[in-house]
Amino acid sequence: MCGIAGFFSPAKSRPTDEMSGITRAMTDALLLRGPDDAGAWVDADRGVALGHRRLSILDLSPLGHQPMASADGRFVMVFNGEIYNFQELRAELEKSGHTWRGHSDTEIMLAAFIQWGVVEAAKRFNGMFAFAVWDMQERVLQLGRDRCGEKPLYYGWVGDTFIFASELKAVQKFPGFNAAVSREALTSLLRFNYIPDPLCIYEGFQKLPPATLITLRSPAERPQPAHYWKLTEAVERGLDHPFTGTEAEAIDTFEAMLKKAVGMRMVADVPLGAFLSGGVDSSLIVAMMQKQSTRPVRTFTIGFHEKEHNEAEFAREVAKHLGTDHTEMYVSGEDALNVIPQLPALYDEPFSDYSQIPTYLVCKMARQHVTVALSGDAGDELFGGYERYFVGRNLWDKFAWMPRPMKKLAAAALTALPPAVLNGMGNAARPILPKRLRHVPFGDKLHKLAEVVAAPGMETLYLNLMSHWKRPQEIVLGGKDPVTAITDTARWPRVGDFTHRMMHLDMETYLPGDILVKVDRAAMGVSLEGRIPLLDTELVEFAWRVPFSMKVRDGKGKWLMRETLYRHVPKALIDRPKRGFGIPLDVWLRGPLREWAEDLLGEARLKREGFFHPEPIRQKWREHLSGTRNWHFYLWDVLMFQAWLQHHRP
């Protein structure tokens, strides 16, 4: 795991010393991504500079140093990530006569470029990666990103120079950088709580989409990313050619594939462990690790003193059953609050999924013991685990038959009383309600239900389920709600089932834009490498072949994962209500964070900065403070942008 940066200027436009100094400044900004080593390669005659910061995981010797040149001298590359099938590729390349100086996967990638070319080689890589490679023979710069978007890569232009980097903090170090804030990206942040690919918070810059390459023969070119793999095609292939074996055969196949994927991700020359929440996904990953380890696997959990947010006790029981070397740490509200000032620098593009806070805390704890940690992310997207898959489908089935005018009437009836009144009625009835309903904000729930009822189609329903601010373009001054994979039907695969469509769109947007960003920045912020076995290429493609009935059954998702896990962990330890991996943000905004938030949301400040219409934000802030509504999701979107703006433009 590393950080990369570089640029492509007009030939001979800068002397070698200047280019080297700029490259070092850019890579120094990525120190936490790669604290172990640094390197730069410059060709002033061609205007190319490649820089690298290294977190040593494989081949800790100088033979793993980057930038690295291919054995024939044709290619020079910087690379961030891991190629998990590098040993298979190594054996295949040896048959064609390739020999090795060390045993890093970087050297294998360069040999693959020699043997098959960059595009064909990328198709063979099973891993997480972002790379930049300069072809000295063809005088071409190529950038590539992994299939699911685990590793980040930004690019854009400053004047006549093309720039790229793992994070924007490196881009900002390039001389003359002064990009304006993109109002489209800001509008998307308010809607989704993240900025989806290919948008970037800075105008003139963008993220390289997952599973794509771009090719430049000169810095003046404006190439379009080209796919070497497409999720939509994988989805269609899987649904057209479903798995036809029995349920037992499906479990056997999945377990064998997962065991292999986990085993490949356990290869490291540094200490390795895993995050363990006690849920299905992380417990299954740890079970597969322990099955292949000769010693107890290191596992890590953070706990919260607030019972409704705490899963540490469940993780402890799973760890005890599997026999892992378990470490847990209970964090206080003060611990979590102390993370907030670090967020603008940690996520140097605005990001407002507030589970970023506990994610950072668990990464920080794990880094005290290991350098690599495996996680169970992506199980929900691949095997139908999110609650919206059930809620959305059930609600749609209940109301889809209604004519449009009847839907509008039903929605109007549900919203006849203000949410505050309905919430108050719920509070008054709390003593006689079942325990599971005593803290439900009935007004908020009924008004959300009204949005679902009024939705004219499944696509609108899904968009509403995924949106915070429903009309963010009316909040952002000059805002525009851009077309995304969710709203561009031309990019959808041929998927008739509503739930499968939601799962595909989550894989296309929410996973790379939110989940993987959260994990990458939190882990890299403490120089920890995170690995995600469920995003193994073969597993992703297999998941789309699995029949829906083996994913969702009896109102529960991840059926196939659960049945596999029951072979290793007693069902009683797993089948329990899930608690959120979160923090009491709604309460904190009324308490210890109130002064901080009030400063960032001040009306005069919002007017002066010129990004938002103040009144809708101030109205939600007043309602939240009064306790009549819980608007913490909406407010956190604005607060994270405001904190980012303050950090980058003090």
**How many β-strands, per DSSP?**
17
Sheet with the most strands, sense and barrel status: 6 strands, antiparallel
Average pLDDT, rounded to a whole number, is 91
User: In percent terms, what proportion of residues is strand?
Assistant: 5-15%
- Report strand order across the widest sheet: 2-3-1-9-8-10
Oligomer: single chain
Shape, principal axes of CA atoms? globular
SS-based class: alpha+beta
Q: Report the radius of gyration as a whole number of Å.
A: 25 Å
Q: Give the proportion of residues in helices.
A: 40-55%
Number of helices: 28
Distance between the termini: 31 Å
Given as residue ranges, the uncertain stretches (5+ residues, pLDDT < 50) are none
Task: Describe this structure as you would to a colleague.
With 650 residues, this protein is of the alpha+beta class. It is built from 28 helices and 17 strands. The strands form three sheets. A six-stranded antiparallel sheet has the order 2-3-1-9-8-10. A six-stranded antiparallel sheet has the order 4-5-6-7-11-12, covered by helices on one side. The longest helix has 27 residues, at 498-524. The chain is globular, with a radius of gyration of 25 Å. The chain starts with a strand and ends with a helix.
Quick overview of this protein structure:
The chain is an alpha+beta fold and 650 residues long. The chain contains 28 helices and 17 strands.
Looking at this protein, list some descriptive labels:
alpha+beta; six-stranded antiparallel beta sheet; 28 helices
